Structures are given as C-alpha cells and as structure tokens.
C-alpha cells in the first residue's frame, strides 16, 4: 500500500467522527462536509510522521477549520444589517438532502443545535470539544488561542447557556413538559380530539406579524379553533424539526428547519391545560429569548 492509499484509508476511518464534530460545531451538514474536506486536503499535504494520535490531530484540524467558519459567519451576520442571514447560510446546501439533514438534526438534538447557535465561536468550540467529545482543555487551549484555564471558563459559560435556567419548580416543569409533549404528539398525528384534551376551552393562540405572514390569523380563540390551527400548521411544517426546549424558564417548543431557529412557541399552562400560546418568528425577538436544553 503506497502513502496516498494509506492516508486515504486512515482518513476514511475517521470521517464519521470528524463529520460529527463539524456538524455540532456548525449546525449545517453542507458546511460540516466542507470542513471535513478541508481537513482531508490539509492531511494529504502535511507531514504527520511525528503524530502519535492521528484522530486527535485530525479533530484539531477540523476544529480550527470550523472556528474560522464560525467567525466568518458571525462577521457576515454583523455586515448583513438585518438581512435574512439564515437563508444566506442555509442556501449553501449544494447536493444535501434536506430530509437527511433534518434526521441528523433530530438525532443530535434540535434544541441543542438552536442553543449552540447563540454561543460565541470560541465558547461553542470549547463546549463541543470538551463536553460532547471529551477533548482535554489543554488540547482545546491552542485552538482558541487561550490558556487551558480560559478554555475551561469558555466551556463553563457555554454549559450555563445550554442548560438554561428554569423559573418554576421541577415538579411544575415536569407537568408542563407532559402537557406540551401531548400537544405536539397530537398535532403530529393529526389527532383533533387529542388536541382538545390538552387545550383549555378558552385558550388563546397569538402569532406575531412574521409568523402570520403566511396568511394565518393573528389570533385564535377557543379550543376548537386553536386545534384546527395547530393541525393546519403541523401539516405545513411537517419537514421542519420541532423540539421541546426551555424558553424563558418554562417548557416551550423550538422549530428549526435544518438546525436554524425559525419559530418559538411559548405556552402558558394552568390546571394541566394550555391557556395561552404565543408563536414568535420575528428574528429580532427570537434573538432575545433565553433558551436552554431540557434534560431528558
């Protein structure tokens, strides 16, 4: 086996792991594939004769590429001045099957991907590498250009954001979760009676102007009207992954097609039933919502 064949074989052995790292770093399958390909190009040209841990070396290369992409993405957002950067980034899907990416997002955790998007690039890298892939802080430090102690602090800040902060007792949070899970399950199954069972007779559903842009009414009142609206919305958004998340300290729903946050639903629950639903799709408001990942 010649040198090029050996390199190709060793790289393929690591490709799945590298793509997993890159996807969690970037939240985009097309960008993750680009990062892995760039890592291959660097590996194919590098002298790795002195490398004892090839997997660690390749992980570091992919992490550096991803960090550059994240910083570039942040710069593009700042330059966009209100333009829809989500569409700009998502449009790079060349050849990527949206259904495949939706399945991947669901397997990683839609809520996790959404919260990771709120982190600074260095925080995201430190958290992903350490908390998700057990990379030591002394290996993360040179990637982010900080000390090991500073890298630990980056991961700690990120972890705090990811975990969020519940504003209700755990028992109340569990009851909220049960109700919202039942609502989502009934909506996905097209179960009208199931929706009525978790909706208060006088429930109110409100859409912000962006969410109502599709022509849906800004406000619905009454369980039957809200249930019909939920079924219609579920059919329209069948390909967009929705997941439970901590939203402003309570149980809500995030909708994130291809890992990019597009909608948040905030619930008010009383006596085991939903009494209010607020559907938010305005990017400015979405960016201000405190989000976190619900523990399994």
Give a written overview of the molecule.
It contains 13 helices and seven strands. It is 58% helix and 14% strand. The protein is an alpha+beta fold. The chain has helices at residues 3-26, 29-45, 54-80, 85-90, 98-108, 110-116, 121-132, 137-144, 148-163, 170-189, 192-198, 223-236, 283-286; strands at residues 199-207, 219-221, 242-247, 250-255, 263-270, 273-280, 291-292. It has two domains: 3-163, Butyryl-CoA Dehydrogenase, subunit A, domain 3 (Up-down Bundle), CATH 1.20.140; 170-292, Nuclear Transport Factor 2, Chain: A (Roll). The radius of gyration is 21 Å and the shape is elongated.
Structure summary:
The protein is an alpha+beta fold.
* Amount of helix: 55-70%
CATH topology of the largest domain: Butyryl-CoA Dehydrogenase, subunit A, domain 3
Give the mean pLDDT: 88
The stretches of 5 or more residues where confidence is low (pLDDT under 50) are: 80-93
Order of helices and strands: HHHHHHHHHHHEEHEEEEHE
Strand proportion, as a percent range, falls in: 5-15%
**How is the biggest beta sheet arranged?**
7 strands, mixed
**Architecture (CATH level 2) name of the largest domain:** Up-down Bundle
Strand order in the largest sheet: 2-1-6-5-4-3-7
């Amino acid at each position: 086996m010649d040198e090029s064949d050996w390199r190709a074989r060793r790289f393929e052995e690591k490709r799945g792991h590298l793509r997993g790292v890159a996807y969690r770093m970037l939240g985009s399958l097309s960008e993750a594939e680009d990062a892995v390909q760039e890592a291959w190009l660097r590996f194919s040209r590098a002298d790795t004769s002195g490398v004892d841990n090839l997997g660690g070396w390749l992980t570091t290369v992919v992490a550096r590429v991803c960090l550059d992409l994240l910083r570039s993405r942040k710069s593009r957002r700042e330059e966009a001045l209100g333009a829809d950067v989500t569409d700009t980034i998502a449009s790079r899907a060349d050849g990527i099957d949206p259904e495949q990416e939706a399945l991947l997002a669901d397997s990683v955790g839609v809520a996790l991907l959404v919260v990771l998007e709120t982190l600074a690039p260095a925080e995201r890298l430190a958290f992903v590498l350490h908390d998700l892939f057990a990379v030591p802080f002394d290996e993360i430090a040179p990637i982010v250009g900080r000390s090991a102690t500073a890298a630990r602090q980056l991961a700690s800040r990120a972890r705090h954001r990811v975990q969020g902060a519940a504003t209700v007792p755990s028992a109340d949070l569990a009851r909220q979760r049960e109700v919202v899970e039942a609502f989502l399950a009934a909506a996905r199954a097209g179960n009208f009676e199931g929706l009525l069972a978790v909706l208060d007779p006088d429930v109110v559903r409100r859409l912000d102007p962006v969410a109502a842009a599709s022509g849906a009414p800004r406000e619905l009142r009454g369980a039957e009207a809200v249930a019909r609206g939920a079924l219609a919305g579920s059919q329209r958004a069948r390909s967009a992954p929705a997941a439970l998340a901590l939203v402003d300290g309570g149980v809500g729903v995030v909708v994130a097609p291809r890992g990019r946050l597009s909608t948040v639903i905030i619930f008010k629950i009383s006596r085991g039933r939903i009494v209010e639903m607020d559907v938010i799709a305005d990017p400015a408001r979405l960016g201000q919502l405190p989000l976190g990942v619900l523990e399994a």
